[in-house]
Amino acid sequence: MGTLDKGWCLVLSGGGAKGVYHIGVWRALKELGIKVDAFVGASIGAIVAGFLAQGADEALEDLGASISLDSILKLPKDLMEDGELRLDREAIQAAWELFQSIQANRGLDTSPLRKLLLDNLNEEVMRGSERKLGIVTVNMSDRQPQELWLEDMEAGTLVDYLMASAAFPGFEQPIIGGKKFLDGGIHDNIPYAMARRRGLRRIIISDVSGIGRNRRPQIEGSLTAYIKNSIDMGGVLDFDRGFLDDYTLLGYLDTMRAFGRLGGHCYFVEEDDEAEEGFASRSASWPAPDFPGDLGKDGRKLLGYLECAARILDIPRVRAYGYDDLELAIAERRVLEDKRIEEILSKGDETRTRIIPALKEAVANRSFDSCPYHYLRLVEELLPNHARTLLERALVGIWPELPPGLTWLRTPRP
């Protein structure tokens, strides 16, 4: 396979708007100095693979920073507001216009996405590159999946096949050579097997948890790194800018952790052996911690306490922390939560009478709108001993991070 044997193949899953995760993965791989010279994708993964195979990194970053629903679909202007669908009465006529467009195109009009690809991708440049590009789609006319490398595609059809791979059900179906095509994720949303059939053995998977047929990769006989979103968030048609930015950053953070540049379990934390050693000597008298899950196997006590305290205070997870940064965020958030509790308690018995049933119902239904620490503090302050013990046990059953997290918050430290 020539130069391919010296680099990696990046396999990119489908997942609609969640495909911005791949951009964060790519940022991290570049920062890590990992050479990638083959790209295989399904659906949005195929489109990202096209940009990367061309070396159009800057264009891809621009796309990730600006993409919205009307970047990929032609929708009536009165149906859109700030790149998202409007759902008010004034949108009714626009909705009828959209329905007519769907009938005419036999699916949602994806001409903006086609234009975007035509404006940014150069098939001639890509064919002259040493980088390899593979995509998967489904030939609906022949009722057969198709796995194609760039050299398998007729000249001038690259954008057609990228559109074919990303033809989500409900979108118009591209026609190539008189045949209709549908989203490749229906056949294989993580086209790892396609890369292996090519003879590639050094493979990085970027899995965004998209909709489709997500086959379990058979990694035997290969060197495979599997990167998957560690936090479940957003949806395939979620174009909220806050989500897109967070999911892009999550791709970067997950990759840096997968390759050992960041540690942590629930959080992304820079390694700090010196801090761990210092804490071990200062905390000898502390009760033995009962850390949940992987934290209990880690052996780093300070990291365990910090992560548990952060979890029960709902400290934001999509960012990189140093030990000091995380400790400061915990302290600041605790102050805010304690002030909230004080305000509630200062409103008198009538407020207490109203809150107690709501508190019990929230625990019974696991329906919460504040952090675990908030609920535990309310239980401690408002309920008599017997009822308090029962609800505290229930809360710990839901959030096993509570006991070690509270130990961190309530144990004096020198």
Short description:
By secondary structure, the chain is α/β, with parallel strands linked by helices.
Describe this structure in words.
The chain is an alpha/beta fold. Helices cover 49% and strands 13% of the residues. The chain contains 19 helices and twelve strands. The strands form three sheets. Strands 1, 2, 5, 6, 7, 8, 9 and 10 form an eight-stranded mixed beta sheet that branches. The chain has a two-stranded antiparallel sheet with strand order 3-4. Strands 11-12 form a two-stranded parallel ribbon. Strand 3 and strand 4 form a beta hairpin. The protein is elongated.
Mean pLDDT across the residues is 89
Beta-strand proportion: 5-15%
- Helical stretch count? 19
Shape estimate:
elongated
Total beta strands: 12
Oligomer: single chain
Helix content: 40-55%
Which helices and strands, and how do they pair?
Layout: E1 8-12, H1 20-32, E2 36-42, H2 44-54, H3 57-66, H4 69-72, E3 80-81, E4 84-85, H5 92-105, H6 111-120, H7 123-127, E5 132-139, E6 144-149, H8 158-165, E7 175-176, E8 179-182, H9 185-188, H10 192-197, E9 202-207, E10 223-228, H11 241-258, E11 268-269, H12 273-282, H13 295-298, H14 301-312, E12 320-321, H15 323-345, H16 349-365, H17 372-382, H18 385-398, H19 402-410
Parallel strand pairs: 1-2, 1-9, 2-5, 9-10, 11-12
Antiparallel strand pairs: 3-4, 5-6, 5-8, 7-8
Helix pairs in contact: 1-11, 14-15, 14-19, 15-17, 17-18
